[in-house]
Amino acid sequence: MQPELIGALAGAGAATLVGCLALYGALRQVSAAHRAADVAAEAAREAAEAAREAAEHTTRATHQQWRQASQRDAAVAFALAAEDSVTACRDLVTSYQPITGNEEEAIFRSMGRAYDVVKAEGPQFLIEKAAAVYDIAAVISECAALHHLEATETGRTPDGAWSHDLNACEGRFRRLLHDFREALRTYLDNPPADRPEDEVRQELRAAA
């Protein structure tokens, strides 16, 4: 074979090899670029997920605080209204403070509205304790109304107006109201853990 042909073939082979090496290098660069893009995309996805979780946690915490404040306000308002109702009953029967039957009834209805708010706000164990307070206050109100009616019809105050039975009812009322307040204090000192996300979302939609 002539030296010129051999040289030409050698040159062509070298050129092909250089071209292949260049192509291989380009492919590696493209592959590396793709991997870098995938890593960046994964990091961005993880960052977005972390931000979403942080935002949802903040929303749950804020909602829980708002919910707990509403429950606290409802419970405190009910306890005060219950106290007012029983005080009005005593005043109605003993005439310690001038009060009419209609006024006592209005105060009792006010306590009933406060109780309805507690039932709407919860939590369930507070509703149950509030129900016990409400029931005994209703008994006291009814007894006081009967005493007042008798005094109105006969023109005199019944003997032992604030009777032993009413004293016993009031004592039970004080114990139940104390239990209610202690339950509320325990609840506020030990707030419940975050509730399920879908439950919170349902409440947020309902409040919207």
How many extended strands?
0
Number of helices: 5
The poorly predicted ranges are 197-201, 203-208
Structural class by secondary-structure content = mainly alpha
Main beta-sheet strand count, sense and barrel state: none
Distance between the ends? 92 Å
Task: Give the strand content.
Answer: under 5%
What is the N-to-C order of secondary-structure elements (H for helix, E for strand)? HHHHH
CA radius of gyration is 39 Å
Percent of residues in helices: over 70%
Mean pLDDT: 75
Q: Overall 3D geometry?
A: rod-shaped
Attribute tags:
mainly alpha; 208 residues; 87% helix; disordered C terminus
Question: Any overview of this molecule?
Answer:
The chain is mainly α. It is built from five helices and no strands. Helix 1 runs parallel beside helix 3 and helix 1 packs antiparallel against helix 4. The longest helix has 92 residues, at 3-94. It is rod-shaped, with a radius of gyration of 39 Å. The protein starts with a helix and ends with a helix. The model is unreliable at 197-201 and 203-208 (pLDDT under 50).
